[in-house]
Description:
Blueprint: H1 14-21, H2 58-77, H3 85-94, H4 97-111, H5 116-137, H6 140-155, H7 160-175, H8 182-212, E1 215-217, H9 227-239, E2 246-248, H10 252-261, H11 265-276, H12 288-304, H13 310-314, H14 323-355, H15 366-378, H16 382-386, H17 391-406, E3 408-412, E4 426-432, E5 438-447, E6 457-462, E7 473-481, H18 494-511, H19 525-535, H20 542-548, H21 560-568, H22 574-593, H23 601-611, H24 628-631, H25 642-659, H26 667-678, H27 686-694, H28 700-706
Parallel strand pairs: 5-7
Antiparallel strand pairs: 1-2, 3-4, 4-5, 6-7
Amino acid sequence: MTKHTVRIPMTLLLAALILVVSCKQEKEEPMVENVLLAEWEGPYNGVPAFDQMKVEDVKEAMLLGMELNLKDIDAIANNEDPPTFENTIEAMERAGEELDRGFAYYGILRSNMSTPEFREIQTELAPLFSEFRSKITQNEKLFQRIKAVYDASMENPLAADQQRVIELTYQNFAMNGAELDADKKARYAEINKELSSLYTKFSNNVLHDEENYVTYLTEDQLGGLSEGYIKSAARTATDKGQDGKYAVTNTRSSMDPFLTYSTERELRKQVWNNYYSRGDNGDEYDNNELIAEILKLRLERVKLLGHNNYAEWRLQNRMAKTPENAMELMEAVWPAAIARVAEEVAEMQAVADARGDNITIEPWDYRFYAELVRKEKYDLDSDEVKQYLQLDKLTEAMHYVAGRLFNFNFEPVPEGSVPVYHEDVKVWEVTDKTTGENIGLWYLDPYAREGKRSGAWANTFRDYSTFDGKKNVLGTNNSNFVKPAPGEALLVSWDDATTFFHEFGHALHYFSSNVRYPSLNGGVRDYTEFQSQLLERWLSTDEVINTYLVHSETGEPMPEELIAKIKNAATFNQGFSTTEYLASALMDMKLHLADPSNIDIDKFERETLAEMNMPKELPMRHRTPHFGHVFSGEGYATAYYGYMWADVLTSDAAEAFAEAPGGFYDEEMAGKLVEYLFAPRNSMDPAEAYRLFRGRDAKIEALMRDRGFPVTSE
């Protein structure tokens, strides 16, 4: 499931807090000389000055930003007037504008432009960020004011969006120790500080292994690889000082096509081992002991709050509510997934035997032989499909879909009119097609490079709100495609194209926001992937295929027979994609339900997979030592199941579109999509929002049908 790529919020654990304290306060603007904190100037209501961003400004900016934010908070906490929604909650919504701006730059330097110098600063700042968070969540005067407003709202409810804000704010503080006694608060804060340092070290260890394990090929080792891949690999090798060679980097975008097409089995094994042993090489960058310590500290922390395990604490405000509910869903799908893997492996082994390859299918063989089966069973060649999947045309296709469903128009801004942090970043203005009103800017950073973390993700530099004046959106999508050689079209796989649409779904969620309060731009983790997963479905609509999937050389549209083959093979390899994802999701949950006292991470992983009857022919999508979703922060900890929870909603909603008179472009359905599923963001309970869209709760049977698994009941 290529969509399950790393999308960790740029400030990690800060994210939940920033939702509460991230908006603008009406106060006398202080003189801020550090460019990373200064007000944004220029067009489109101001934009980040990425062209002035320097690593040496980071530490000063973040220290000063936290200081200014705490002054805002102290002013709220020490207000002598009786607490009201306006002087407490709305004031918090305005607090910390300088730090917000600083984090826009910090996130880029952390995720897109990391350097050894920045990593040193990041390591130094991590515990200070933790202390900063604790000074807010453990501010007793502040919490008592929040509680007073919350208690009053239980007697006399506020307007719906205000009620949602106060409930989320109160819950956030309570979940983070605001009601503990002084001793427990001190230990809670100390644990958070320790964890923040461990998260940073975990991330940097993975990034080290991604940057330093490169497989260099010679000309006689290129068998099976496409011309485009070879040219990109040559360019990458030259950039790394290995002119005349070909580089397979330790990222998914480089590894995946190599394992799919390379005829060099021993090299496939080497590339596979490099990728799946990230953070697990028994050296100073090994993450196993860090993970064990993270698990111990997480458990100790939630026990201070009276919870039995971390999962119980984390899921209380998610759609699943309990770890048992999340496990029930995953375990309902798991048997069908591994049964399908057994069928896929048998088909691959038959192909290998027929070829006289004299092998037994191993993990580094799965993609290669699956591709051979695809060709034999469906007469479908993935490399042939790639010729019709040009990144530029896919970008146009996404903009077309956004226009049809959301009434958005995307227009490239003149080069140089908006500062960018790298020459590869392109910017579009987003407007309403009917009124011409500016909605925001869309930044696209598509290529892999040194210092950029792997995966694909989306985030914002500025969120929409109408509070204290309308704020337009500055949203960004980030990928790690291997940059093509000059003059070459960037061709991607169907899976990568799906991921591209997925991440754009997150961006559309940002741009379609219609909330008053900034903190309502957040979301419930096992719901926020739903909107992006749903948008993937428009890639395979006839309108997109017939207009935008054209041959890279001839410009001819994709032939009908190839389209038919793609649709016939829609459930192909679902055993692999479902099992590799579910194994990671189950491992995430089981690790946090286990006793971490004397846990040996490698042993736990091996034994748990054996108990689950994990097929030996494939690995988890994210092995524990590099599972950044879960151990470089807390955004997806015990929440990786959320992709599947959201996929139940996705499959069910897709069937609603398929059944509509106008299909996936039905105007009535599109209106409901925007009104109930995208625009509200976190201003209403997600289960209620889905029922308003569908008229009922989602059913798992749609998911099983989508994957070609047996449906036992309706």
